[in-house]
């Protein structure tokens, strides 16, 4: 993982400006972007590079600016892909909110990827910085979307469960585990 520079830095700046416009924070000044970039630690990973391993300390989340990150867990002797984060998506957000949390999956760059590391210190920064506010809004909307998707899956699992069965039975059916 290498720090940003040159063309990649310009990519991060343009992405952050677009994020500010998307969430109604207006146009961020260069000083606002500099503050966010100092807090968010932009990085670049090559395809196949491991960013974090399952069981590592979780100190923050990852916002994909360009590329794709893949989360996998060890299943016996093989790795099983459990999630992918594409451009604009956040992955590993539990690391921001849970002190002492451990990574639940290994995170690997599936393609050359530019990303921001969103640590706890980012959210202690100035509330008057539109770039920080946009990053916070993006994170919160990601969390709300994931919660809504999980709720929908649980509701569907209850509906799929046999009468007198549990949501776990229905979830098993939804995931192909049979009845």
Task: Write a structural description.
The chain is an alpha+beta fold and 179 residues long. It is built from five helices and nine strands; from the N terminus they run βααββββββαββαα. The strands form two sheets. The chain has a five-stranded antiparallel sheet with strand order 1-2-9-4-7. A four-stranded antiparallel sheet has the order 3-8-5-6, with no helix packed on it. A hairpin with a 2-residue loop joins β5 and β6. α1 crosses α4 and α4 packs across α5.
Order of helices and strands: EHHEEEEEEHEEHH
Alpha-beta content class: alpha+beta
Proportion of residues in extended strands: 15-25%
Rg of Cα set? 18 Å
N-to-C terminal Cα separation, in Å? 45 Å
Backbone shape:
globular
Major β-sheet profile: 5 strands, antiparallel
Task: Classify the helix fraction into a percent range.
Answer: 25-40%
Record field, number of beta strands? 9
Low-confidence stretches are none
Q: Can you list the strand order of the major beta sheet?
A: 1-2-9-4-7
Q: How many H/I helical runs?
A: 5
Overall mean pLDDT: 81
What kind of assembly state do the chains in view correspond to? single chain
Q: Main attributes?
A:
globular, four-stranded antiparallel beta sheet, 5 helices, 179 residues, five-stranded antiparallel beta sheet, alpha+beta
